[in-house]
Design goal:
Bound molecules: guanosine-5'-monophosphate
Structural class: alpha+beta
Oligomer: single chain
Number of domains: 1
CATH architecture: 2-Layer Sandwich
CATH superfamily: HIT-like
Low-confidence stretches: none
Strand content: 15-25%
Largest sheet: 5 strands, antiparallel
Number of helices: 3
CATH topology: HIT family, subunit A
Radius of gyration: 14 Å
Number of strands: 5
């Protein structure tokens, strides 16, 4: 049996993180290894492993994460643009098996990703 995920430990306060936002459904923390001047992780409190494993009943939570991303992008004044990323599974580059949205901004971002 696997124990709580890294992000569950951050949510529980067992591992410190720089928190930017929280509400009843999610928290947003600064990534420990930022890839842009703004790099937040928006994490549902429910430990959904990845978007590919989300249930139909998670619809409101999934939508909420994007609304929070929108609000944070606005409050952090990313009016010139930003990117939201969800990595899914090994080929998707997911390293923490607890769904999270990366919110990246503050510099021009290249496309396509590697
Ligand atoms: P993934 O690769 O799963 O899409 O994203 C996981 C992210 O979690 C990575 O960007 C990584 O830098 C970040 N991360 C890993 N460990 C920690 C940690 O202990 N604290 C914080 N704030 N971010 C972490």
């Amino acid at each position: 049996m696997s124990g709580p995920t890294l992000f569950e430990k951050i949510i529980a306060g067992e591992i410190p993180a720089q928190k930017e936002y929280e509400d009843e459904l999610c928290i947003a923390v600064h990534d420990i290894n930022p890839q842009a001047p703004v790099h937040l992780l928006i994490i549902p409190r429910k430990p959904i492993p990845r978007v590919g494993d989300a249930l139909d009943e998670d619809q409101d939570t999934l939508g909420h994460l994007l609304i929070v991303a929108r609000n944070l992008a606005k409050s952090l004044e990313l009016e010139s643009g930003f990117r939201v990323v969800i990595n899914n599974g090994p080929d998707g580059g997911e390293t923490v098996p607890h769904l999270h949205i990366h919110l990246l901004g503050g510099r021009p971002l290249e496309w396509p990703p590697g």
